[in-house]
Amino acid sequence: MRVLRAACCAMVLAIVGHSPAFTAGRSCEDLASLALPATTISLTQSVAAGAFETNKNLPAFCRVAATLTPTTDSDIKVEVWMPAAGWNGKFLAVGNGGWAGSISYPAMGEALRRGYATSSTDTGHSGGSGRFALGHPEKLIDYAYRSEHEMTVKAKAIIAAYYGEGPKLSYWNGCSAGGKQGLKEAQRFPEDFNGIIAGAPAADWTGRAAASLRVAQAVHRDEASDIPPAKYPVVRAAVLDACDALDGVKDGVIENPRGCKFDPKVLECKSADTSTCLTRSQVETARTIYASAINPKTGREITGLEPGSELGWATWAGAQPLGISSDHFKYVVFADPNWDYRTFNFERDIVRAEQIDADTVNALDPNLKPFFDRGGKLLQYHGWSDPQISPGNSVQYYKRVSERIGGPDKIHGSYRLFMVPGMGHCGGGEGPSSFDMVSALEQWVEHGRAPDQIPASRVRDGKVDRTRPLCPYPQVATYKGTGNTDDAASFVCKQP
After folding, report:
1. Phi and psi angles of residue 285, each rounded to the nearest 5 degrees, phi first
2. pTM exceeding the 0.85 threshold for the entire prediction
3. In whole angstroms, what is the distance from residue 274 CA to residue 231 CA?
4. Is the pLDDT of residue 421 over 50?
5. Which residue, 231, 237, 219, is CA-closest to 281?
C-alpha cells in the first residue's frame, strides 16, 4: 500500500511538473480593491474572447487599468492584461514609440496571444508631442524611465494577485523609443527583467535630435540644397551600383554598409540640373546626411545615416525637420515653444542638450554588468537602412559596452547585437525584416541556447520571397558560393 501511495504521489508530481499550476488568486473584478502604493485602479474588466474593441483576435483576458502617481506631478496610465486561461507563467512588458503618450495595445495583443501576461504605459502624458515636458521636469523623468519601472513593479503585483503567484520570468520587448526604454531598464533597474529585446533603440536621444536638425538645416540652407524625393531612387541606384555586389551577391541589399565607400559626387550634374543627377549643393546635402559629427566637449561621435537608407531620407530631409527632434530642443533644451530650428548650432547646442539631459532621456550608460551578473540577456537589433535612428549608434553602444566590461568575449554570453541588412525603422525595407526575437530570447534565457543566428524572411504580396540568417555583430551573412541566393541555407555567418 505504501508503495502504491508513493507511486501515485510520484505520478501527481510528474504531472504538476509538466504543466503550469497556480495557486488560486482573486477574480478579475476583485482586483478593484487591490491596494498598491501610489496606485489607483480605475478599471477591472473580464474581456471575452474576440470582444476587445480594437482587436477582435484576442483570447479571453482580465484587463486592469490604473493610474500611478509616484510624484505629485505624475499621472502615469498603465494597463495590465492577463490571460483568463493558458497563462504561460511569464510576463512580457511592451514599449512605445516617439514621445509615447498612449498605451501600446497592438503589442500587448501580440504578447497576450503568446500566453503572456503583459503591460504597457502611456509614460505619463497624452499625445505624441514633447510639449508635456515644458515646465514639468518630473513628467520628463516619468517619460524617460520612471513610468516603465513603476509599471513593471505594479504589473508584477497585479499579476501575483490575480493568479496567486507572480511571473516566473519577466521580459521586455520594444523598438525605437521602446528599444531605448529596454536599455534604460537594463541600465537603471537590472532586477526588473530576465531578458530584454531592444530594437532600433533611440538610445542617443539628444544625438539623433541634433543630427536630424543638422541635416534639416543643410537641406533648407537654400533652394538649391534641397534634394527632392524624386531623386532619392537615383541616389539609391548609384549606391547599389557601387556597393551591392561587395558581399558576393547582387540582390538590391547592402549586407555591410560600413564597407561601402560611396561619394555622391559621382552623381553631380555635368551641366544643367536634371532628374538623374545632383546639383553641387545637393551633393553636399547628401554628404551631410551620411556624415557623422562630433560632440566637441565629449569627443563622442554622433553618427549619420548609412548607405542604403536613401528611400527614407524624407524622415530627416523632408519639408519639415523631424518633429521628435525639434520638440526636444523646443520643450526640453531651450524651454521655448517658439524656438526655430534655423537658429540651431550643432557644436554649441549638442553640448547644451547633453548637459541638460544628464542621462535622463539618453540611454548611453555602458555599464550593464549588474544586469549581466544577474543572468540578464540582451538582444538588440537595428536595420542598416533605418532613416530615423542612426544604425551606427547601435554599433557604437555595443562597442562601448564591450570596452567597459572587458571585450567581446566577456559580453557574448549576455549581449548580442543583430544588424539587419536592408531593413528600415523597426521593419520594412528591401531586405528580410520578419523575424521572431521573442522566441530567440526565450530559448536563450530559459534553455541556455544563445542565438548564433536568427532566421529572417522578406514577405511581399503575402508570400515569403527571400530568407536570410541574421548574424550577431560583427558577423555578416556570407554567400557560400552555390545555391539559391534567396534561400538562407546558401549563407553562413562569418566575420566580414
Report:
1. -65, -45
2. yes
3. 10
4. yes
5. 219
